[in-house]
Specification:
916 residues; alpha+beta; Beta Polymerase, domain 2; Four Helix Bundle (Hemerythrin (Met), subunit A); 8-stranded antiparallel β-sheet; 4-stranded mixed β-sheet; 42 helices; 11% strand; [protein-PII] uridylyltransferase activity
């Protein structure tokens, strides 16, 4: 307990009045500050020992009650004593808002209501002002209002926020009769006559708040206070229940019939856990931090006491517990809304708000099998429906999908309470599995139905392997959602592609989808592709084994099961190949085609890859990734279709030169022959027609103008990239200078293609991810990057200094540890050695890597840059100065050491952070 007692402080001040407010504050503030500091330290110690968030919040609230009371008594006794107060000098002090609920987080605001019988007097104004000055000197965030009872009621009528604040007002001290009068009149004049309006306003307010904080409760950096499934959702439930059912305490909601005892216990568990997390966050940061960011997650997991287990890290186990609580809050929200609708207090939502484009149904229609249409939604006839036939638990959701009906919350509630019926018998029931397969492969709204099944707890019970990844987060900056939410969203993207809704974004996928023969296998593979996440073994291999087990159970044929297993095992192959390999290298296409083997698999893998990437989160899919996937698809199609794969290299070079000649009709034959002689065969094989023509004209103009360094740029909105072409005398550090200039100018490189003419001129193409939506803005940025590159190549600036200015590591990345890896492979290309480097991303990393490669006297033929959140994967196709592969083991070891040294400082700092 705090050693400094406010009561003893009040006694030490004596009874003698003073008019020196500054002197009184000087005596009060230091002792009260010490009392608060010691109290917070005590609260934190109790929290760490007991891990009870509500006890911590209540303790802090009780401590604040004492402080406010001491400040009031000191002001009344010493500054503004009222020996014979008039009727107008009565007043009460009440806590409102969260403070009124009797709970405070360490960084919470202190909301006070100074309640007057009539209008404010000079005496009451002076008392309130003096109290506030002391509280402000204590560095407290005080929200306050000074109103009469009539003013409170008038303001509450006009403002829903004030009405909510008064709903939770708690008497602290002063004139109790005055406060009781406010409570009585507030209940009679406002609450009793405005329940439907209040409920509607609070639910709309919740929708707006959730949309602002992040619409999904499965965001991997949730807002504990205002996010979906957070504390404010619980507050809203109680406000509504308190308003409608006229209860004082949460435990009265069972007697009122809103919750069963079990559901109220769930409410209490959710509230305690969220308060525990919130208090830990405030203590850990020393401020009112409400967003559970990556860097905080590790700290809070440790403070609460989570440890690694079952293939999950401590932080992943903590966040899984958090998301389960957020889901439970969602269940409680549905229960309350259902009860309110039954009382006709809440307006029934339009079906399209719940399920999408659904038709109106006639109330009271019987559907058979124990199901009815209740108030335009699917409900059960009675509570015995699932007990009588457990298959009906699956049939409930199947009917919702087939008939385009929203499910009544009562039916969902019963399904959740009936989960014990889902055992081996139901899991292996052919009819149940047929219905489930119909849901996954539906052309209606499988994403919505699967999410509803998941939130009811059904998916994890019916498919136990899915249950292992429910609420599981992946502790990285790449994935925006939990694994189960990602899989469900992937099915949704697949449905959109099949329905032709994304034709402009995915033209190839939309074109080939109608030709896919294994539609059921594709949908099941998308639903299962990450189902083995969180296991010690590779999740793709383990997922394929799960697919082989589940396929026959779901009713797939042997061939369909094989296809699903293959897709799950190789679901990352196309993405990784497209983004991190040289697609102009025949060896890349050949090795990819050898794995894929058939056109049907190629089609399936393309569509699955798109669905997977798009469901990762907003901004993850780009037009550039789409272009890479299309290029890989078309190049592989040639091989699998028996096309011109065996066409002689010399013939392909000749055809490329003929195409370019046709694009340059104004060139003389001699001029064109001279130009052709400047390029090695690799240039003609690896560049496309459009780029060859543009670069030919650029080289010609540079020669005529006598420019040693020339740049050109253009943007492509569809692909989401901007291309820079750089002409410069070649030298070993050229790419390092270019990447450094790009980093200094804010250009994010995603690809690089490098060629050198026979007369020593480098022709480099750098592809940057697009930063602006408007072309004019993006072109202005490209111009800045191009000028930065020109200045660096001309020696007008020192590139190392420019890059150093961008060195501070991303704050968010500090929470992560990505062990650096260097792989050197000579089998991936016929002519170059492929070096793959992965590690923690940071500004200037690509510059550091290319600088190291330059110092190693390696020529870089192409570079392919991929970033997965905090993890960078950079791939370089290189040769020695002699133009040959790097085959000597000692030379490879030197390269590996030099590249790992680039990460050494960051790696040691990361290890220190993890051990701290």
């Amino acid at each position: 307990m705090p050693t400094h007692s406010p009561q003893s402080l009040l006694q030490s001040l004596g009874d003698r009045p003073t008019r020196d407010a500054a002197d009184l504050r000087a005596k009060l503030v230091p002792t009260l500050k010490t009392f608060l500091d010691e109290g917070r330290a005590e609260a934190e110690a109790r929290l760490l020992e007991s891990q009870n968030g509500l006890d911590c919040a209540r303790y802090l609230c009780e401590q604040m009650d004492q402080v406010v009371r001491i400040v009031h008594d000191a002001v009344i006794r010493h500054l503004y004593p009222a020996a014979n107060p008039s009727a107008g000098e009565r007043f009460a002090v009440a806590a409102t808002g969260g403070y009124g609920r009797g709970t405070l987080a360490p960084g919470s605001d202190v909301d006070l209501l100074f309640l007057l019988p009539y209008k404010q007097t000079a005496w009451s104004e002076s008392v309130v002002e003096a109290m506030l000055y002391v509280l402000w000197d204590l560095k407290l965030k005080v929200g306050h209002a000074t109103r009469s009872v009539d003013e409170c009621l008038r303001e509450a009528n006009a403002d829903m926020t004030i009405r909510t604040s008064l709903l939770e007002a708690r008497f602290l001290f002063g004139d109790r009769d005055l406060f009781d009068d406010l409570e009585k009149r507030f209940d009679q004049e406002i609450v009793a006559v405005s329940a439907p309006a209040f409920v509607d306003a609070k639910l709309k307010e919740r929708d707006a708040r959730v949309a602002k904080a992040g619409a999904s409760r499965y965001l991997v950096e949730p807002n504990v206070k205002d996010g979906k499934g957070g504390l404010r959702d619980l507050n809203t439930l109680f406000w509504i229940a308190k308003y409608v059912y006229r209860v004082k305490e949460p435990n009265e909601l069972v007697k009122a019939g809103l919750f069963t005892p079990e559901e109220f216990n769930l409410f209490a568990r959710c509230e305690e856990f969220l308060w525990r997390v919130r208090c830990h966050m405030h203590f850990a940061t020393g401020r009112a931090e409400e967003r559970l960011t990556f860097d905080l997650q590790r700290a809070i997991a440790t403070r609460i006491g989570f440890v690694p287990r079952a293939g999950l890290s401590a932080v992943e186990r903590f966040m899984k517990a958090y998301f389960r609580i957020a889901k439970d809050v969602g269940d409680l929200t549905a229960i309350v809304c259902a009860e309110l609708e039954a009382r006709q207090t809440k307006r029934r939502p339009m079906l399209d708000r719940v399920f999408g484009r659904f038709r109106r149904r006639r109330t009271g229609a019987m559907l058979g099998e124990g199901f009815i249409i209740d108030n335009n939604r699917l409900n059960v006839e009675n509570e015995a429906v699932f007990e009588r036939d457990p298959v009906n638990i699956i049939r409930l959701f199947w009917l919702a999908d087939r008939r385009n009906l929203a499910i009544h919350p009562d039916a969902t509630r019963l399904a959740t309470r009936s989960l014990k019926l889902i055992g081996p018998g139901l899991r292996n029931d052919p009819e149940a599995n047929k219905l489930f397969l119909d849901i996954i492969t539906s052309k209606n709204a499988p994403e919505v139905v699967l999410r509803h099944m998941n939130e009811a707890g059904l998916l994890g019970r019916f498919v136990p392997d899915f249950g292992r990844i429910v609420a599981m987060m992946q502790f990285n900056m790449y994935h925006h959602y939990t694994v189960d939410e990602h899989l469900i969203r992937s099915v949704g993207v697949l449905t959109e592609i099949e329905a032709g809704q994304l034709v402009n974004e995915h033209p190839l996928a939309n074109k080939i989808f109608p030709t896919i023969r294994n539609r059921r296998a594709l949908y099941v593979a998308v639903f299962l592709h990450d189902i083995a996440k969180g296991r010690p073994e590779d999740h793709s291999t383990a997922g394929a084994a799960i697919a082989r087990k589940l396929g026959p159970r779901f009713g797939l044929t042997e061939a369909e099961t094989d296809t699903v297993a293959w897709l799950v095992e190789h679901h990352l192959l196309m993405s990784n190949t497209a983004q991190s390999r040289d697609l102009s290298d025949p060896a890349t296409i050949k090795s990819f085609a050898e794995v894929v083997q058939t056109m049907e698999r190629l089609k399936l893998l393309l569509v699955l890859t798109i669905a997977d990437i798009k469901a990762v989160g907003p901004g993850t899919w780009t037009g550039w990734k789409g272009q890479l996937l299309r290029t890989l698809y078309h190049e592989t199609e040639v091989i699998l279709g028996g096309g011109a794969v065996d066409l002689a290299r010399s013939e392909r070079v000749r055809l490329a030169q003929e195409c370019l000649r046709a694009e340059l009709p104004d060139w003389s034959d001699a001029e064109f022959e001279a130009y052709v002689a400047r390029h090695a065969p690799g240039y003609w094989l690896k560049t496309d027609e459009t780029r060859r023509a543009k670069q030919a004209r650029l080289l010609r103009e540079a020669d005529k103008a006598g420019h040693s360094v020339t740049t050109a740029y253009e943007t492509d909105q569809f692909r989401g990239v901007t291309e820079l072409t750089i002409l410069s005398p070649d030298h070993p550090r050229l790419l390092a200078i270019v990447t450094g200039a790009c980093a200094a100018a804010g250009g994010n490189i995603v690809d690089a293609q490098i060629f050198t003419t026979t007369d020593g001129i480098a022709v480099d193409t750098i592809v940057l991810s697009r930063a602006f939506d408007r072309d004019e803005d993006e072109l202005r940025r490209a111009e800045r990057v191009a000028k930065a590159i020109e200045r660096a190549l001309k020696g007008e600036v020192r590139i190392a200094d420019l890059v150093d200015g961008k060195r501070p590591a991303k704050e968010r990345a500090k929470a992560f540890h990505v062990p650096p890896e260097v792989t050197i492979d000579n089998s991936l290309s016929n002519r170059q050695t492929v070096i793959e480097v992965s590690g923690l991303d940071r500004p200037g990393l690509l510059y550091d890597l290319t600088t190291a490669l330059g110092k190693l006297n390696l020529n870089i033929a192409s570079a392919h840059i991929v970033t997965f959140g905090e993890k960078a994967v950079d791939v370089f196709y290189v040769t020695d100065l002699t133009g040959t592969k790097v085959t000597h083991a000692g030379r490879q070891a030197s390269i590996r050491r030099a590249l790992l040294d680039v990460f050494k400082t960051e790696e040691s700092e990361a290890l220190q952070r993890r051990s701290a």
